[in-house]
Write a structure and sequence with these properties.
The protein contains 15 helices and 15 strands. An 8-stranded mixed β-sheet has the order 5-6-9-1-10-11-12-13. The structure holds zinc ion and manganese (II) ion (MN).
């Protein structure tokens, strides 16, 4: 058993997907602009006499995030100057928020799958969310010993979220970052791509003796966690590094450390400043912000469907199993696609004028979900493609599901149709016709084959009649072989059972 346990708090910075920057009208390239210093002006390069004008859209985005994370939204808020010197910060200060952030206490509910053991639920408290501006970027040309500065990123709206120190493992930290990313994507307030620096995670990690005060340890801030994997590995490394120090009787130094993903270890960057060192004071060039309940209600009403709401709807209205709903919800493009397929299927049912039970609708939807989650994913994966690259229209996919559902084709024929759709596109029914894939459910014809198979396999027949029910599966397989897979296996099973009963 471990002598020391970790207490972890997360700090996450997110670049917001507004059209213009936070305090000027320069284009917001979200860190993707290739040409250096293209999107710059006197405001975002900190020229004397220039004045900042806050971006309303960015403020709305942060309030949306706050509402989705159950935060209290401030009725009064303001911007402050955070003073420090660094060459990527042209003004010598960052416009941020100190004591009146846009969003106060909130929480996020997680489902955590630990490396060992079962899935469990966990609520992580959010301390605050505030709005600030991003810095420029330094480019080090080591060969020439020169450093260049690119201000494209300077002034991009940046949301900062801080959690309570309530996270107890690397798995929980990773689940937190993943769920947060998903929410940001549902809200469409940021692509939140970690590899592109649009979402940047830092972890505050301390250790306390088992049974002791959870907050008694010395905090180490871990930066440069540029992927979910880095979040997990970095925190694990840091926990064992600190545990080793403590177990050998040493003290953990309060400092900021960077994570080196290639070497798989953290390294000391600097000893930690506290907020006094930043000499925060109110930003004199921007008026304080005020929000009425009405304005906040308005933003609340405009919130899109959130992941847990979509999951609930997929289960209750479309009849999906909770596990399938969870998979779809965690991949928004796939969930959108599924919903298009589902409405195609619903159209088909109503066109046919069918009396269709809820359970029938649910079965059809579940079949579509299964094919999406397993077959389509596998096809895309084997070609190294992401889901957005799918070239099958929802109409054609729905038709394939229809053919399977009505047992016009069996599952192996469905694979062939799917492969064909991926490679060449086209109409599923036509492919079935061209490739002669329709299932044979002709009872007379299948009976003939079944009798033949029984004659050839007297041992299996005898086994079945002695009560070995599994023996019939072998016989079904033999009939499928004789018919080159064209037979309808359910019809074959029925016919065989009938014939076996008769031949006793
Ligand atoms: Zn600008
Ligand atoms: Mn910050």
């Amino acid at each position: 058993m471990l002598k020391y346990l970790p207490t972890i708090g997360m700090e996450v910075h997110v670049e917001l997907a507004t059209e213009s920057k936070m305090f000027c009208s320069c284009a917001n390239g979200l860190g993707l602009e290739k040409e250096p210093n293209k999107n710059i002006c006197p405001v975002c390069t900190g020229q004397p006499g220039s004045l900042p004008v806050p971006n309303q859209k960015a403020i709305d985005f942060v309030i949306q995030a706050g509402l989705a994370l159950n935060c209290q939204i401030a009725s009064q808020s303001k911007f402050d100057r955070k003073n420090y010197f660094y060459p990527d910060l042209p003004k010598g200060y960052q416009i941020s928020q100190f004591d009146q952030p846009l969003c106060g206490r909130g929480f996020l509910d997680l489902e955590v799958l630990p490396r060992q053991g079962d899935k469990y639920e966990k609520r992580v408290g959010i301390t605050r969310i505030h709005l600030e501006e991003d810095t420029g970027k330094l480019l080090h040309d080591k060969a020439n010993g020169e450093t260049w500065v690119d201000f494209n990123r300077a002034g991009v709206p940046l949301m900062e979220l801080v959690t309570e120190p309530e996270i107890a493992s690397s798995a929980e930290a990773k689940a937190f970052c993943q769920q947060l990313q998903l929410i940001l994507r549902y809200l469409k307030i940021s692509p939140a791509d970690m590899e592109k620096g649009q979402m940047r995670c830092e972890a505050n990690i301390s250790l306390y003796p088992r049974g002791g005060d959870r907050l008694s340890g010395t905090k180490v801030e871990l930066k440069n966690l540029n992927s979910f994997k880095a979040v997990e590995r970095g925190i694990e490394f840091e926990i064992s590094r600190q545990a080793e120090i403590l177990e050998s009787g040493g003290f953990v130094r309060q400092e900021t450390r960077g994570w080196d993903e290639n070497r798989g270890e953290s390294f000391s960057q600097r000893s930690k400043e506290n907020s006094n060192d930043y000499r925060y004071f109110p930003e004199p060039d921007i008026l304080p912000l005020r929000f009425s309940n009405q304005e906040i209600e308005e933003i609340k009403r405009g919130l899109p469907e959130l992941p847990w709401e979509k999951k609930r709807r997929l289960i209750s209205q479309l009849g999906l199993k909770p596990d399938s709903a969870a998979v779809l919800v965690s991949a928004p493009e796939m969930a959108d696609y599924f919903e298009k397929v589902s409405s195609e299927l619903e159209n088909w049912l109503s066109e046919e004028g069918r009396e269709f039970s809820e359970s029938g609708k649910a079965k059809l939807n579940q079949l579509a979900a299964n094919y999406l989650i397993t077959e389509i994913q596998r096809h895309l994966f084997s070609k190294g493609l992401s889901f957005e690259k799918i070239n099958i229209t929802p109409e054609n996919f729905a038709e394939l599901i229809k053919l399977v559902y009505e047992k016009t084709i069996n599952s192996s024929a469905a694979q062939i149709v799917l492969e064909e759709l991926f490679l060449r596109g086209g109409d599923p029914s036509q492919i079935v016709q061209e490739k002669k894939l329709a299932q044979n459910s002709d009872v007379g014809q299948l009976e003939k084959v079944a009798r033949l198979v029984m004659e050839k396999n007297p041992q299996s027949v005898a086994d079945y009649q002695k009560g070995k029910e599994n023996a019939v599966k072998f016989l079904v397989g033999q009939v499928m072989r004789e018919t080159q897979g064209s037979a309808n296996p359910e019809a074959v099973l029925e016919i065989l059972k009938k014939l076996l009963a008769e031949s006793v």
